[in-house]
Amino acid sequence: MKPEKKYPSEVYLNGKWLKPDEAFISVFDRAFMFGDGIYEVTPFYKGKAFKQKEHLKRLQYCLDQIQVAFDAFTLEQLMYEAIDRTKLNDADAAVYIQVSRGVAARSHFVPENIQTTVLLYAFPVTLEGFEKKTWKVIATEDKRWHRCDIKSTALLANVMANEEAIAAGFAENLLVRKGYFTEGSHSSLFFVKYGVVHTHPEGHKILSGITRTEVINICADLKIKLVEKAVHIDELVEVEEIFVTGTTTQIIPISSVTHQDKKVYSARKDSVTKKLQEVFIKRTRG
Ligand code: PDD
């Protein structure tokens, strides 16, 4: 069964706070026509943002990469306003931001004098109890483009990968490019092999996950050895633990991986994942 998703009670669109059924954009908005926009999701633990600056910095990086002139940090206070207006100060929540290039007659080239479309809203999310979950996942070919570091709204390949997993009763799809794991359809990916944590190096093949960076920092603080090195699907026989990370996912261990209808991995240990979860809870709720 797919979880029920609700609309937020209010959204910010281009300077106005509106009910979702009053918030409209043009059919010529380039995010609608081309997926020509960037998005960001920031968690709020009981009303307090976690790594807000890092999320806004990544938004700025992505906007710069696609040459949309917009100052992401102008949204800093609005994010808190969204939490206030939807009365999520005492709950766990997330803020969704989307900045599209804007509205113009359709053209492949970037039109001149175009105004960005800015959408922002807060929504409740269950962040407590993630440490009790485990995910059964599949692994499939990574069919995305070659700039996965850009958090583009054009998520069709991610949507197709995620749907393939969910429709078959799995929680996530781990993506494999030329035999090497990159990341999940909506999460960063880590492996523990001979006690050493492995994760794909930053670059164009993965998103620079904010939770991923936090996990790397926690490993350094706990003196857990970590290497930014891609893991090949054939190396799974040597892997002891796998976990995925993300803003709403946080840190979730993988219990099994199925690839081409065969189970190719079953969790052997959980000690490293458990240690990381414990420190992560302290940092997000401390
Ligand atoms: N997804 N990789 C991909 C492809 C993602 O979509 C996400 C997050 C991550 C984790 O990044 P972070 O730790 O910064 O959330 C990695 C978000 C939450 C989403 O699309 O809703």
Written account of the structure:
- The chain is an alpha+beta fold and 286 residues long.
- It folds into 2 domains: 11-124, D-amino Acid Aminotransferase, Chain A, domain 1 (2-Layer Sandwich), CATH 3.30.470.10; 130-285, D-amino Acid Aminotransferase, subunit A, domain 2 (D-amino Acid Aminotransferase, Chain A, domain 2, Alpha-Beta Barrel), CATH 3.20.10.
- Helices cover 24% and strands 30% of the residues.
- It contains 6 helices and 15 strands.
- Helix 4 links the parallel strand 7 and strand 8.
- The two termini are 34 Å apart.
- Residues 41, 158, 183, 186-188, 207, 209-212, 245-248 line the site of N-(5'-phosphopyridoxyl)-D-alanine.
Key traits:
2 domains; 6 helices; D-amino Acid Aminotransferase, Chain A, domain 1; D-amino Acid Aminotransferase, Chain A, domain 2; globular; 30% strand; 15 strands; alpha+beta; 9-stranded mixed β-sheet; 6-stranded antiparallel β-sheet; binds N-(5'-phosphopyridoxyl)-D-alanine; 286 residues
Main beta sheet: 9 strands, mixed
The shape is: globular
* CATH class term of the largest domain: Alpha Beta
CATH superfamily of the largest domain: D-amino Acid Aminotransferase, subunit A, domain 2
CATH topology of the largest domain: D-amino Acid Aminotransferase, Chain A, domain 2
CATH architecture designation of the largest domain: Alpha-Beta Barrel
Low-confidence stretches: none
- Domain count: 2
Secondary structure: helix percent: 10-25%
The rounded distance between the terminal residues' Cα atoms is 34 Å
